[in-house]
């Protein structure tokens, strides 16, 4: 992998983010507008970027990476649906996301529920449709089936949804480190792990590559959430695109509730180092992943 | 197909309905309780029954039917998620479903949103996991890929969700027959068509069988919704398990808003006849499907 920059992958995603939404009849076009609104409201695209990078890292050629865009965008659809539902008044009741009003503020609650449902459904419809193109290519088909299973598992009731359930139930409660790790590992890390593993399968990873990338992703995923928790306390509102001290106001269970800020930063450093260590034996080949983890840790310093 | 009764298939579904939910950690077990509550609250199981019946009708053997149970239950997960979300205060705001309190009344709105998301995710996770078992059986694998695509398409933004979007937007409006057909064809018929087509693929249908079953399902699906609309006006509350005149109170767009009751019953008869006519050339072999359509029409007489 030749030092491909984050923005190369991100641009690919940004350019194709609406491509896998099926043509929707004008009689129900509002759901398209609502999905499009949230899909194009910015965002770092970290999950789809990781999917494409993992695909290329394990040896996927340019056709593999191109073919992986469907799965990368599907992953962003899933992430976006989770944000729309998470922002609902019955859930986190957020009115601002990425610097613009949340979906239900613009389209109403009913349409926001349906736009979320629509994005989750579209993610699977797009990946399933893609598989029809590979019915006579057993190697690529198997890779796709493994990738879609990784994505569905990480988004489901043993993954992201489990984390959201535990997060909601832990509100207003003093929460143990074990519970906090559980919430973060599922709410945030699961989809990041799913992204990396799906990308690895799509690129034809061997067992060793898969194990190393999984170790990296687990630690990166936790680091990512802790960085977010820290930023909620000391970040700049304009830069974050949302209100600061949001977690605190909602009595959310976060690391800074349990530990002082310096300990949180220390934990973040440890996780970053551990993440990077999983890919040490690949030397410069892993530069993209190393840089990504380190940049994230630097962001909160 | 030897005159298998509706209850044979329904019992299969009832006995396996919880089998495809993955093991969920106790830290997020509430979402399991919430999903289980709605999955076991009764219901006719018409979609999964149709899937199994279609699989057997086209020549699927007992192993094919057994293998199709995953897809049948996944379809019921999708149907159930749509009911949970549909009942939310922001949507139809229903407090009673199948004679028991709706999901959000028991588990709260946040958990109901997540239980719906969980069921939709679990449906795809279960089907994707099943495909892993057939990686080295290209014939059965292809049938599964086609089946899962049918299901995802029918549940998505060109199917069920499109219908729900149009339904919400048509509230409190005078609605044309074209719009009404669009709503019903998508909100209700789509998943019934998806069920029949997915079952047909899983049983190894040929093109002609697929076309005939699709024609049957389109008409059955519309008939099913019109029967429901009529029952909302003249049905028995105890039998329906929900309040009568619900549609009227919410200014929902239904056939009885547009036509008098006798015309609606006439339209129902026509659709039933057309549905049955698609399977005429199969004679007694199609008895299950014929009886199902006719029983439904009789229910509202």
From TrEMBL, chains A, B:
SUPFAM superfamilies: Terpenoid synthases. InterPro entries: Isoprenoid_synthase_dom_sf, Polyprenyl_synt, Polyprenyl_synt_CS, Prenyl_diphosphate_synthase. The keyword Magnesium applies. Its EC number is 2.5.1.10. The lineage of its organism: Bacteria, Bacillati, Bacillota, Clostridia, Eubacteriales. GO terms for molecular function: (2E,6E)-farnesyl diphosphate synthase activity; metal ion binding. This is Farnesyl diphosphate synthase. It is an enzyme of class 2 (transferase). Belongs to the FPP/GGPP synthase family. NCBIfam families: FPPsyn. Keywords: Isoprene biosynthesis, Magnesium, Metal-binding, Transferase. GO terms for biological process: terpenoid biosynthetic process. Its cofactor is Mg(2+). The keyword Cell division does not apply.
């Amino acid at each position: 992998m030749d030092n491909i920059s984050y923005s190369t992958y991100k641009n690919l995603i940004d350019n194709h983010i609406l491509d896998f939404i099926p043509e929707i009849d004008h009689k129900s076009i509002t759901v398209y507008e609502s999905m499009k609104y949230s899909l194009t409201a910015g965002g770092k695209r970290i999950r789809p970027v990781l999917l494409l990078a993992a695909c290329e890292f394990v040896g996927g050629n340019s056709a593999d990476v191109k073919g992986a865009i469907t799965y990368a965008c599907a992953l962003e659809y899933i992430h976006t649906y989770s944000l729309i539902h998470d922002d609902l008044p019955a859930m986190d009741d957020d009115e601002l996301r990425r610097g613009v009003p949340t979906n239900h503020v613009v389209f109403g609650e009913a349409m926001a529920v349906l736009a979320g449902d629509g994005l989750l459904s579209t993610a699977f419809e797009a990946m399933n449709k893609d598989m029809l193109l590979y019915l006579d290519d057993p190697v690529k088909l198997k890779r796709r089936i493994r990738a879609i299973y990784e994505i569905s598992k990480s988004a489901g009731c043993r993954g992201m949804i489990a984390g959201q359930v535990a997060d909601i139930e832990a509100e207003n409660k003093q929460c143990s480190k074990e519970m906090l790790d559980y919430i973060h590992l599922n709410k945030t890390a699961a989809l990041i792990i799913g992204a990396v593993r799906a990308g690895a399968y799509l690129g034809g990873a061997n067992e060793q590559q898969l194990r190393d990338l999984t170790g990296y992703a687990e630690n990166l995923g936790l680091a990512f959430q802790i960085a977010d928790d820290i930023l909620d306390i000391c970040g700049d509102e304009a830069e974050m695109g949302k209100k600061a001290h949001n977690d605190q106001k909602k009595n959310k269970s976060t690391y800074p509730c349990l530990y002082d800020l310096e300990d949180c930063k220390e934990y973040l450093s440890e996780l970053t180092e551990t993440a990077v260590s999983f890919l040490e034996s690949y030397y410069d080949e892993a530069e993209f992943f190393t840089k990504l983890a380190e940049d994230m840790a630097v962001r909160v310093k």
